[in-house]
Target: Helix-turn-helix domain-containing protein
Amino acid sequence: MSDEPDLCPIARALACVGDSWTLLILRDAFQGATRFDQFQRGLGIASNMLTRRLERMVDNGLLEKRRYQTRPPRFEYRLTDKGRGLAPVLLTLYAWGEHHLPIDARGIELVHRDSGEPIVPVIYDRHRGMPLVPRDVAMVAGPDATPAMRQRAERARAQGEALFSSSMQDTATVETAVADPLAEAAVTPSAEITGQRPQ
Model:
């Protein structure tokens, strides 16, 4: 993959957020945490590790560092537009964890902010206005693809032009969804997380 990281959006995204602590910090930021002690208390993370993660997230443009006290100097961390754009990712991880790693206890639930009804996040194709399922998705080589990327795209085409094997069961289910969950989550989220904050 050494010749591809800049060309592959997945590789670029993982380089920015591909760390469990980073995602958990984002989770807590979406739930209102802004200050160092709030993140540390909610996550139980060592202070030096939290400092490094917050600095990296600021450098990557996910959080903005703002001074809220001068003496002694203290700072808070606010989500940027880039950070808020990860809302659909966290919602999808929530749904995946609920489906594939269920437990008897229910610490948090996703509900619609206005109605209070439970929701299940889904990925929609904005152009067709329909939910995506694995068998509907294909990756094709772009004009700047490397030979290795083109080879993988051709192999996928030979296997049925699907990103995932056609033998896979569709995991995208729709129970309650808004017209365009991705757009709403990125701009004005209509969902909220209720219950105890995960530790």
Summary: Residues 87-195 form one domain. The first strand starts at residue 63 and ends at 69. Residues 73 and 146 are 48 Å apart (CA to CA).
